[in-house]
Fold:
Amino acid sequence: MILGKKTRKAGLCNRHWNINLSWSAVVQMCQEDEQVVQASDVEISALVGWMATNSDGIHDTDIVEYCSRLGARNYNFMNYPIGGMKRSSWCPEKNGIPPPIDLPDLQLDVKLWGTYVIGRISDWIDCDANESWLADLSCIEIEKELNYMTYMPLRVLTLELKHRDSPKLAEILTKWMWTRNMTYSVWVFLPTDENLLPVTDCGQDIRDIWRIWADFRSLCTNYPMQKLAVGLRLCPNLADEFLEPRLYKRWHAEPLCSFCIETSIFTSSGQYGKCTLPPAHYRLLMDLFVSVVQRPLIHCNSSEQVDEHLRLQYVNMIKQLIQEKAIQSKEAALAGSDDNVLFEYLGHREYVDTLQMPLQPLADNLDSGTYAIFEEDSVKYDLYREAICYAIEDLVKITGEERNIAVYLLGAGRGPLMQMIIEAEELFNAKSCNRRDLLKLELYSVEKNAHAVVTLQFRNKHHWKDRVQIIEGDMRELSEKVRAGQLPSPDLVVSELLGSFGDNELSPECLDSITDILRSTTISIPQQYTSYIAPIQSVRLHQKVLCCSGGTKYFERGFPGRGRLEPVKLQDGTYALPECPEASQFDEIYVVCMRSVCELAKPKAVFNFEHPNFERKSNARSVCIQFTIDMQSELMGFAGYFTARLYRNCQLSIVPQTHTKGLVSWFPALIPLRHLYRLQKGTEVIFHVERKIDTRGVWYEWFCEFQNVDGKIKTTPLQNKDGMSYFMRL
Amino acid sequence: MILGKKTRKAGLCNRHWNINLSWSAVVQMCQEDEQVVQASDVEISALVGWMATNSDGIHDTDIVEYCSRLGARNYNFMNYPIGGMKRSSWCPEKNGIPPPIDLPDLQLDVKLWGTYVIGRISDWIDCDANESWLADLSCIEIEKELNYMTYMPLRVLTLELKHRDSPKLAEILTKWMWTRNMTYSVWVFLPTDENLLPVTDCGQDIRDIWRIWADFRSLCTNYPMQKLAVGLRLCPNLADEFLEPRLYKRWHAEPLCSFCIETSIFTSSGQYGKCTLPPAHYRLLMDLFVSVVQRPLIHCNSSEQVDEHLRLQYVNMIKQLIQEKAIQSKEAALAGSDDNVLFEYLGHREYVDTLQMPLQPLADNLDSGTYAIFEEDSVKYDLYREAICYAIEDLVKITGEERNIAVYLLGAGRGPLMQMIIEAEELFNAKSCNRRDLLKLELYSVEKNAHAVVTLQFRNKHHWKDRVQIIEGDMRELSEKVRAGQLPSPDLVVSELLGSFGDNELSPECLDSITDILRSTTISIPQQYTSYIAPIQSVRLHQKVLCCSGGTKYFERGFPGRGRLEPVKLQDGTYALPECPEASQFDEIYVVCMRSVCELAKPKAVFNFEHPNFERKSNARSVCIQFTIDMQSELMGFAGYFTARLYRNCQLSIVPQTHTKGLVSWFPALIPLRHLYRLQKGTEVIFHVERKIDTRGVWYEWFCEFQNVDGKIKTTPLQNKDGMSYFMRL
Structure:
């Protein structure tokens, strides 16, 4: 089930320049690391900026005029050197002194700075220059500009990687991010042309551009995108990795916040002709542009002043491209497909990339609102009704109208499936006029949540003509009552006890508890389910899991943990979970609407369960699954899915390749590893996972092995040992 | 200075029933423990509810009709038994079985439940009843109702204290609050009539009603108001403590969320005459109603059905009272007084009771936005200009037009005081037509924040005709330059370096650093300042300080701390503050717009500083200050204030009793104790505080002694030893 505890922040204020979606609001969004734009707010026309250069011929105290000139050309913001243009265009010389920072704050209102301007490090600054005097000078001067950014009310600072390795720059940024309450994000640009990051004389470097960025952010300790994000500079030449979707989709797993489009890419048929992008660039941009929070910037790298008419054409072309992507997304969303769709068109945008704790409906009672949300998934219930129809057909043949058919709904909740059972009966009766009597099922509804039983009773009286016998209690105590003759043996058992990873809400344990009271002909809906996993790359989800740590507030110390331990009362009368050094937030399973993710191989099956389990097979499991990874990449963990066969060919699936259209009840599960693992092309990844059971509950333990092409094997630590971090209570 | 780092949540959605301010929004507000209503949102017409009883003659499945009937009578919500009226009105009997919970959720939309209904524990439930069978039964049945609340989408549950001591109830609630992710608040009602909480046979109990509540919430570990709040039931009889403002103002320091007004209080002249409250009740309600988040409830405790016309009269009377309070508040706010004003009329509502970290302008550089906010305080700058005018008059006499007068602005920021100096000069020239020449001051502006210097230069060029010599650097290095003859000795030194507790932004250290370059006639503005403290009661602020602990997130481990230690780099390249077990969030000074506070004695002076400090007195200090507390109360810590004499009779004060009208730059300081201390009437409280200095910074250390009337002395632990928790860097 998808629902977790999540507070939504809403209500970012809107400010207007040329278009309706506020730039300041979306920058803020990206900084707060939350997707919060409301459906009604989304008007897909992304904000496009201009990268100001010296050739624009402006002065550092004329920002107001410059902004309005760009605004008249349909631009929404500009990228401007934070130290001023004079300083930025300085030609560095040994023993020379760069012009001082001079971009006075008073010329623009505090709010307008943040709305219309994003900063840039002076173009000449190069902390990792080969000339040590330039490197040293740059390290001093970049600090001043980082500092001036904290003074100014700007929210973004851009800079470019000038080398394949930039350790000094990384060191400076890392210290800033960790030890300063930075109020802005740094966007680091990399070119799409590998020739612009030449290999130094000393030798070979087989790393691609993605890998160069990944190494840089690793040096920066993978600090989250509130402070560190990446931009791609689209150059005329595209390296191979930007031509193959399989490879460039790795950027979906990165905090890709911006595109800097060089004007030399545009082809134009005469001065007043229409401006276009070459097909490869067009496709790349269409595929990597996944949200309006990504900011395209247009950059003229010639030294001549750009023609005003062309400037307008460039921005219009990019806005048109985004419009096309929006139209495609809208169509795809309506068609129920959500592949390569703008985030803004996803059904549950506020959940995108948000970690949720899996529900434990067995141990906890769900609340009324949660039931109400799940009941809205008509696709799921339509499938159930269809499956029940088939089962009724078969059961009528089996029982031969000799006796009533006893139908048990196990874990009835507020009764949505009971409604389906009754509708299936009506459908059967409507088409079976040749029967002697109308079919009348005997209906039993078992629910252990006493609160939901209040609702069931209300529905029974008002909707179901008191036909249903409601049994308040745990289904694991049902067999006693049947054996005592108080209740008949079931012919049909219907349940919906599946989690995102199939069995993780303990459906096997619940359903097995009634095996001894079943007839040999009893049908279970679902009949069978299988969990799946696929290896994934995602620095973003790794950061999110990291962020789950260390944040226990004083008054929340006693809240239920997800591990095996339970809170205890302390001497001062307060409660707290016992300290548990083995527990780690990386050893838990999460539920996530995954977007900033790249699947590194196709999903494979993990655990399979069948019902009724007449053979009384154990529900403990142990498997290992092998994947071959066919590119330079970074393993974060595994996405978990499931498929379920309800009855005959009625199938539910949340495996991406076979996803049931329109099914919204389940987001994928996330099974993290404790660290990010850089993989070479061709690495074999072997995932070991066990499903373990004791008297108190069920848990998974897992670890990985990597076999590189050179045959070396690396093993990761065993995670969630003894269920200390993630424990599904029985 | 007032500004701290604070993120504001905004944009609570509005839902409407009868009036414009949404009930659901404000309950949410109270639960989130944040004051977030925007100025434009505030329409002062509080929401008034009806407490449903059996005599209303309704059924548990007619909630919709009942709601609309009450809505037509101008009520905004109702208080209804969460288990249903049938269950609530059960007469408990030994071995009897109470009716089951039966208040079906489906009859009202999820959102409407939360908007129109607050829950109530069944009236007969009494966990601390003398009859053990009733107590035992109550303990079982209250759990069911607390559980059903988590199922239902309600946000508040009310119950009444029925005894002077309720340990079993406290134990149950405490366990719930600590170990369950409770989605609602519990409002505990106490009567204003002490006879309704009779002393049990075994003896004396001198505790008043406030103390009974305080004992109860202590038993509940003082859990914050998101989950535990208090309501007062206004009975016909008022205990003495509700007649004397000095005593009932202690309730301002409690999470007082509601008033339950008994209909028997109202006096009415005939059925169609106007309904009124007795004067004492009226005054009590007017004084204790401080925010529209407090919810009045009207309760008819007779067994007869209430007349519909009277029901309307009651609610209108209460709404009128609130309207009157709003009008008074508006007038008071316009007149610049904020005593006993509705929170909604305070200038900075989002700051109310919010802990902020004091700025350290000496160690840190302020940003442009912070300067902009401080520059808006015209009251402060008008006073400075006046003081500068007086100083110029005196200096003209001293220098006798023989030489120019050298004016130094120390810590110029973006130059607001330079503007005042220039205006003072203009004023002087305007009224001194008899002088030979116009006065022309020599102006020097010293500022260590390089970023603010960019602004100063801009203003110097555009506003000040390049008259001002701008010196970028620390004022503590100024004397070198003067001694080297590069700059003249100052005749007038102007600065604004004061914090909420006077010297806590290190004004003494900064100003003393230039003593050796002063003339004997040099004037300092300010000339003198004194810090003040007053003992305060406030469980709310104690909870807020508690909440500051234990919440360090992974990616914020390296953020600057407030104590002496600085972040260090770890092996993995990340940064973190070193572990420091001695450090405590209770040993820090905060800045707070204090509202949920009761001053227990008048403020007294603490430290005094004079400038110029020609005698070179040390700025280390050690004092002890004695207060007598004249009521049963609970000491939380001390409020800190200051007064400053700028020059002659130009005085700034944030001491409440002498507060400069309209001055908004400083909220009070908060100096917490580590625990809440219950005081008997007549206790002597002695506050010991030292101001300590070493080469790296300045810090306060403090502790308290209490001498009870019986002569016993209790000493609290020394706080902030060696500045490990709060350290002002030099």
Notes: The CA atoms of residues 231 and 258 of chain A lie 4 Å apart. Chain A has four domains: 49-352, 368-528, 529-552+586-729, 553-583. Residues 553-583 of chain A form one domain. Chain A touches chain B through 69 residues (CB under 8 Å).
